[in-house]
Design a protein that fits this description.
With 733 residues, the protein is of the alpha+beta class. 47% of the residues lie in helices and 14% in strands. The chain has three domains: 249 residues, no CATH class; 279 residues, no CATH class; 153 residues, no CATH class. The radius of gyration is 27 Å and the shape is globular.
Length: 733
């Protein structure tokens, strides 16, 4: 049964029409129709060049960078390129007022100057295989969802353990098509990744939050790192004796550039999409959840801006936090707009109406799927409240919310351990060491006046926005002791809390007994955290999990039903942070009536935006001088230096840093964003407006060479230009 179903899914992948540019395809399963489409767009290589089990292929040059981005190898000496915003946290950790690498940039002029980054990893995919039958072994239709998950989890663990036995590899099993198909991924993780070069934020983050998600764009969003290995070319923790990793494959870099209609292919690890959800899901997001979260983040951003603009040190401390908060805030607004333009809810409802008519015409299908849509309606009626509550509480305590409360909450595991009648002394020691490191990280980037104001603002917003059932436990305390005066409550909290005193916390962790640690339970920050945590864990999580389990089951059956309902449609799996390929073409687009965007930008646009009074548009003097002199090296075309371009590739979060290659597999750009008009592509793709934005490799080479004076880095790359001899180009392929 399961084998038959898997074969059916493969057939669906290889049949039926697909809209131009749409799709995030599993590279192992690139089929004949995919290749025909790719070749029609200009692709000159084979599926084996993209993904090979036995030979080096392009997939061997693509990595998971850190925990949520993509990167690619561009030399035989482990040189890696990703986005500046993907390396932002690493750059920030090395920055200080004395060495402000965020503002001034950083360039190692020798291997000895490259900076190590504790905890930063580069993960290579070594193999993948379809394991649906093995994962679903023992699963029956009579099982509850919980029983089903337990069997699947046990089978998956066994498969992973078997796959990596006797090796240093890691493995993961991932679900596709809402749990109807499974793949096993075997990875090799390198954890000595060093910072090589990064342009100043005035280049790497040019335009800042104002230009984020927008086109036209003039951002040099790239950074260089290097992967190191031991003498056996295997992963190793940081050591001075480590040497540059020698990859199985790396991308030749093209300086030839792009033109309208050129083939483009994006490799990467897209994080999450939801292409097949019902109309109720879109209504929940666009009418309730997103509007509330947008309003909440409006308040967060205003508080941060107020303090960042007044103090340079605070700007450095909160640069990454501000960028993180702003990122989703702008995307949610774009998704609402894009879905409205597509009339997405009505389109889903029309599809569902047609689906109902189809069910009514087929007794077998009606028996199997007849109640699906009604069940969806019932679950989402309650899920809307729980989804909002869950996201809201995470915004308050995590996601740069009330930072002192979050720190207080990080002590909860330690306090739980001390509750035991005979606490594990070794475990307590390890937990205290973890907290000491957490204190260093917290206080390095913490500014108390900002957090005081943030706490007041967020608590007031919570009282206005959340249903009474999800806030009473918190405001009962404020109402009882402070007559509902949130300002007075927060002022009292920060006067009395111990969690703003790093020295006192360090002393307590180093010297205090388990008994003395109990003083933290009475701390006002911990008590407020405990009340919020109680709402989250006792009221929201159980019901949210129950509803989510119900939706998982419905999604799995709905996915099967859609396959039967639309047999000519070629389905691709939703993103789940596994390696995917998307392909399209370099294309401009019409943003709105009478606004047509061309496909590229140039350095001219940077100078037009130049404004020393605005941090995000303050162009470095060195770049201005090069522009004034017209000193663009070999990277300009007809006197214009290209900066960014757009194409019709289907991308999402996680594709940041993805390599963008041309028809011959040469690196032409680094993907870093999507045009705002098309950010709803996570939920519904619009081929007319969905565009991925990439920094042009010619601009990257120019910055490295002419701006930074680090031309030695270009010497280790294979740079393919218009004048390259054909025999050398052939050898590179």
């Amino acid at each position: 049964m399961h084998k038959i179903f898997t074969v059916c899914f493969l057939l669906f992948l290889l049949s039926g029409p697909a809209r131009a540019g749409e799709g995030m395809w599993i590279p192992l399963l690139l089929g004949e129709l995919n290749l025909v489409e790719m070749q029609e767009k200009g692709f000159e290589l084979t599926a084996e060049d993209v993904y090979s089990v036995n030979a080096a292929s392009m997939k061997d040059a693509v990595v998971v960078f850190g925990g949520g981005c993509t990167g690619s190898l561009i030399s035989e000496e482990g040189l890696l390129i990703t986005n500046h915003h993907c390396g932002y946290s690493a750059i920030q950790r090395h920055s200080s007022v004395e060495h402000d690498y965020l503002t001034n940039g950083f360039w190692a002029m020798s291997r000895e100057e490259e900076l190590p980054n504790e905890g930063l990893k580069a993960t290579f995919l070594r193999s993948m295989e379809e394991v649906t039958a093995s994962v679903l072994k023992g699963v029956t239709s009579e099982m509850t969802e919980e029983q089903r998950r337990e069997v699947i989890a046990a089978n998956s663990v066994a498969l992973m353990e078997e796959a990596v036995a006797g090796t240093h590899f890691t493995a993961r099993v991932e679900s596709f098509f809402a749990g109807n198909q499974y793949f096993l991924f075997v990875n090799e993780v390198f954890d000595d990744v060093r910072l090589v070069g990064a342009p100043p934020s005035a280049i790497g983050k040019f335009g800042g939050d104002t230009d984020n998600w927008m086109w036209p764009r003039h951002t040099g969003d790239f950074a260089l790192f290097r992967v190191y290995a031991n003498e056996n070319n295997a992963p190793s923790a940081y050591a001075e004796t480590n040497v540059p990793y020698q990859p199985r494959h790396y991308f030749p870099v093209s300086s030839e550039g792009v033109k309208e209609g050129d083939f483009t292919m994006v490799f990467g690890y897209p994080g999450s999409t939801a292409q097949y959800v019902p109309s109720w899901h879109l209504q929940m997001l666009t009418e309730t959840v997103y509007p509330q979260l947008i309003r909440l983040r409006d308040e967060k951003l205003e508080v941060m801006r107020h303090h960042i603009e007044r103090d340079r040190a605070v700007r450095i401390q909160y640069a990454a936090k501000h960028a993180s908060v702003s990122n989703s805030w702008k995307r949610w607004r774009g998704e609402i707009r894009g879905l409205e333009i597509l009339d997405a809810v009505n389109k889903k409802q029309e599809q569902e109406a047609a689906f109902r008519r189809w069910l009514e015409s087929d007794a077998v299908m009606h028996a199997a799927y007849g109640s699906l849509l009604e069940q969806y309606a019932r679950v989402y009626a309650r899920m809307e409240t729980m989804q909002l509550g869950r996201d809201y509480l995470l915004e308050l305590i995590g996601r740069t919310g009330m930072e002192t409360l979050r720190l207080a909450g990080s002590f909860s595991p330690l306090l739980t351990m001390t509750d035991a009648s005979e606490p594990d002394k070794e475990a307590l020691k390890v937990e205290k060491e973890r907290l000491l490191l957490a204190l260093d990280a917290h206080f390095k980037d913490f500014y108390q006046p900002l957090d005081v104001e943030m706490t007041v603002v967020l608590l007031k917003r919570m009282r206005e926005d959340l249903p009474a059932e999800l806030q009473s436990d918190v405001f009962a305390l404020i109402d009882k002791k402070f007559g509902g005066d949130v300002d007075a409550f927060v002022s009292d909290l920060f006067q009395k809390t111990m969690f703003t005193d790093r020295a006192a916390l360090v002393e307590l962790l180093q010297d205090a007994s388990a008994k003395k640690l109990q003083v933290l339970r009475k701390d006002p920050s911990y008590r407020l955290y405990a009340r919020l945590s109680k709402i989250y864990h006792n009221q929201i999580v159980p019901e949210y999990s129950r509803l989510r389990a119900g939706l998982d089951s419905l999604d799995r059956h709905y996915m099967r039903a859609l396959q039967d309902f639309e047999p000519e449609r070629r389905f691709y799996p939703d993103a789940n942070f596994t390696l995917r390929v998307s392909y399209g073409q370099v294309r401009g687009y019409e943003a709105r009536d009478a606004v047509d965007f061309r496909y590229y930008t140039t350095i001219d646009g940077i100078m037009e935006k130049n404004n020393p009074e605005i941090y995000d548009y303050d162009v470095p003097a060195r770049l201005q001088d090069l522009y004034a002199q017209g000193d663009f090296g070999d990277y300009a075309r007809e006197g214009h230096l290209p900066v960014c371009f757009v194409a019709s590739n289907h991308t999402t979060g996680g594709n940041s840093g993805s390599p963008v290659v041309n028809s011959r597999g040469h690196l032409i750009g680094v993907n870093f964003d999507r045009a705002w008009e098309g950010v709803m592509s996570d939920l519904m793709f619009n081929p007319d407006q969905c565009r991925n934005i990439s920094v042009d490799m010619r601009y990257v080479l120019f910055i490295i060479d002419k701006f930074a004076g680090a031309a030695y880095l270009l010497e280790e790359m294979e740079i393919i230009g218009a004048g390259l001899p054909e025999e050398k180009e052939a050898a590179l392929l």
